[in-house]
Amino acid sequence: MHYRWVDRIYMAGIVAAVVRIFWKRLWLRKLVAGMETVLVDRIRISVMDMNITPFTVGLLKPKIVIPRVILESYDEEELMAVIRHERTHIRLGHLWIGLAWDILRCLLWVNPLLSVFQKQFRTDMEDICDRVCIQSSGRTAHEYGLVLLKTMKLLCFESERTPSAVTFAREREFADMKRRMNEIAGFRPYPKRLYVSLSAVVFLILGILLFVIHTCSYPRYTESRDIMIGHYDGKPEVVSYDTAELNRMISYDDRYVYVEREAFEHFLEENDVDGEIWIVFGGFYKLPGFAGAAEACIYEKGSKERIVRIPYDSIMDDWYLEWMKLL
């Protein structure tokens, strides 16, 4: 309320984080859009010449990207195991969860832990995907692990032909693959019905909690009809915020404030008000008494009219205030 520059800096940080994070997403999407595509069992696959582990990009129209060396070296069953893994990421909503994480990183950019632990977050999603794939495929963890092991060996061999910077990136991927192999080796089938039942109970509890929170919460913003009188005579001071009393003397519309002169000036004399007189009215607030905006105008004595009409320029059309209402 007193140091608006802090809030401007925070908003600038959000914009900078959005540019930095989402520019990478747009760059990757553009890169994948220019790749060669092939059909594998009626599934369209994008083919990349660089030797990287398969991945999926896109939200509304996800695209599975597989390196050419895997496409040419795997038999149909092995290739379908790789594709099934990527499609499981899509089915479980991991691409949308990743987007939500990036949005959270933008909004809470001052929290470094969201970036520091991003790798662990993605690792958890890979582990979940591996377990779901093994459980649903009907194959053993040993068979599933052999496919990943073949991927590791194949890319390791081919990476010898790539530039050193790319090879270094591959080494990090192979370290992650080794960790995944250990997790897969310890896989045990889980009771699917029990987990489905527990998930249903959790979602029901969350739904009830969200309903209770929504019922008890204030709205996103509340239009204010309050009126306040203040004056400045060396220092700002509130004269009155008794809206019920002030409503008998003051009204307003979208362009003018209407003041009943005799009653209002009698009110000013009773309260011994001197100096610059401010009328603050309307606007909105986020929470009662906290964070909001209001219209204002200056009342000047000396008018002979019974009803003094004061024009004012509304601040409610400002883009910043419109954004504030939506947050």
Describe the structure in your own words:
The chain has 327 residues and is of the alpha+beta class. It is 54% helix and 20% strand. The protein is built from 12 helices and 12 strands. It has helices at residues 4-33, 68-73, 76-91, 94-107, 113-116, 118-137, 141-158, 164-185, 192-216, 243-246, 261-270, 319-326; strands at 36-40, 43-48, 55-57, 63-67, 222-223, 227-232, 236-240, 250-252, 256-260, 276-287, 290-299, 307-311. A hairpin with a 3-residue loop joins strand 8 and strand 9 (256-260). Helix 1 packs antiparallel against helix 4 (94-107). The radius of gyration is 32 Å and the shape is elongated. The chain starts with a helix and ends with a helix. Residues 159-169 have low confidence and may be disordered.
